[in-house]
């Protein structure tokens, strides 16, 4: 009996993560949906016949628990957990928010990748990092997010070189403006008007399913 291919998606409770979990399930993967909010990831996991594992990527203990749940073999890891917090000029920026973005987008992705790399090597798998076009160019008020996503991209490049002799592919998906139910709302502390204003004048912004399609078709 052929063993079903296994995928892990971090930040799978909503937005790009949830859409990616659904897309990978459609492609025949058993998907482990991870995130901090159990009810959210459980809903997605139940919908696709996957597994829900609570995992805050900033917690070494919870990441170790995720690795134990995964076991010895993993085909796909999608490092999606992260996001943006606030949009302020450096002169008045909340540096705690900057630190939080670095913890999730960079160190969180590094921590999960490090823990699951042996299983990926064993399966000759692929690790996908969801970065952002924020790594391409700076914008006003985006210094913290620009810096975090630029650091994540640099980490991806280094990892690709470090694994040159290992049977693991390293892929980066860098979305531009994606309209999801939470990204901008979280960034602006629940201010719906500011969140909606981000997409003003954009007739057809990307949606989460567009990014999931890129991961499903090109990323894996």
Please give a structural write-up.
The structure is a single chain. This protein is an alpha/beta fold and 220 residues long. Helices cover 48% and strands 15% of the residues. It has eight helices and eight strands. It has helices at 15-26, 38-48, 60-70, 95-123, 143-162, 183-187, 192-197, 208-219; strands at 6-9, 30-35, 51-54, 76-79, 126-130, 169-173, 178-179, 206-207. Strands 3-2-1-4-5-6 form a six-stranded parallel β-sheet, with helices on both faces. It has a two-stranded parallel sheet with strand order 7-8. β5, α5 (143-162) and β6 form a beta-alpha-beta unit.
Any chance you could write out the topology, listing elements then pairs?
Elements: E1 6-9, H1 15-26, E2 30-35, H2 38-48, E3 51-54, H3 60-70, E4 76-79, H4 95-123, E5 126-130, H5 143-162, E6 169-173, E7 178-179, H6 183-187, H7 192-197, E8 206-207, H8 208-219
Parallel strand pairs: 1-2, 1-4, 2-3, 4-5, 5-6, 7-8
Helix pairs in contact: 1-2, 1-8, 3-4, 4-5
List keywords for this structure.
220 residues, alpha/beta, 6-stranded parallel β-sheet, two-stranded parallel sheet, 8 helices, 8 strands
Brief characterization of the structure:
By secondary structure, the chain is α/β, with parallel strands linked by helices.
């Amino acid at each position: 009996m052929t063993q079903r291919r296994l995928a892990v998606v971090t930040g799978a409770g909503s937005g790009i993560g949830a859409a990616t979990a659904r897309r990978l399930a459609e492609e025949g993967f058993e998907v482990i949906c991870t995130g901090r909010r159990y009810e959210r990831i459980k809903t997605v996991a139940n919908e696709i016949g996957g597994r829900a594992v609570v995992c805050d990527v900033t917690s070494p203990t919870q990441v170790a628990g995720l690795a134990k749940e995964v076991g010895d073999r993993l085909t796909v890891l999608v490092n999606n957990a992260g996001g943006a917090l606030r949009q302020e000029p450096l002169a008045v920026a909340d540096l705690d928010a900057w630190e939080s973005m670095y913890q999730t987008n960079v160190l969180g992705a590094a921590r999960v990748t490090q823990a699951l790399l042996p299983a990926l090597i064993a399966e000759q798998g692929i690790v996908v990092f969801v970065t952002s076009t924020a790594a391409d160019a700076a914008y006003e008020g985006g210094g913290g997010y620009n810096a975090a996503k630029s650091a994540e991209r640099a980490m991806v490049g280094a990892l690709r070189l470090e694994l040159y002799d290992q049977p693991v592919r390293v892929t980066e998906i860098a979305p531009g403006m994606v309209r999801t139910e939470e990204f901008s709302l979280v960034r602006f502390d629940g201010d719906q008007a500011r969140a909606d204003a981000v997409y003003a004048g954009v007739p057809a912004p990307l949606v989460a399913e567009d990014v999931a399609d890129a991961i499903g078709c090109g990323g894996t």
